[in-house]
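Could someone model zinc ion with this protein?
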Amino acid sequence: MDLLERIIALLERIFFPVEKPRPNTAPHEPVITPSEIKEHIVLLPEVTKLNVNWQKKKFITPSKMPIGLIVHYTVSGKTELAAKNVAGYFAGTPKSLGYQLACPIMSESGKLYVSKDWDILKDCNNNAGPSSWKGMTNLSQRFMGIEICNWGLLDNKTTKFVAEKDKRVSTQRDNIKAGTYEKYTHKQELALINLCFYLRKTCPGFKFENVVGHDEIAPNRKSDPGASLSMTMPQFRWHLFSTYEG
Ligand SMILES: [Zn+2]
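Reply:
Sure, complex below.
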């Protein structure tokens, strides 16, 4: 990290202080250690391009690259095949769905899937819907979206798809709505952290303060990632700050 970057990072911390972690009322979960993160950093995320077409827009930021990241879950299975099916869904396959959403999709192994001509640093489309963060709107064209394959907040229909060991019960706290969620896999959480670090290194203007849950930017409509992530979003941002070494 050069001097200018260090100064910018310091100013970010002063002017955009990260919320202090709040008491975690959930049962103890294994935490991801900094050494474990270092072992898993690959910088360039593993991206597989699929033979589907997504409608594309371009980021409208000064750098034409994302300045933040929106964390989602898909409400689907999490295998490689499930991730490919979500990609087809985004492309409108079957056509009757015609669903105008698009952003990288992460399977249980942490691999990203996109359409065949998708550039993850330049291409975007609607992924967040009406939303706002720190005075910004049109977040789908400012922040990258990441759809992490998972059943999310479980209900009567979806709870049967998830093994008991993969469930997490949470009370209402920070961005998390009370309920039982499917946990992201450990590989997904490591790949998510790696993606944040990769974007921080690669995209001018990308800030950890802008790594947000869909449930933070559209709180009345959305519950992702909720307790699928092992931390609340404020805790996750703090985790990024405290473990990143530029
Ligand atoms: Zn979402």
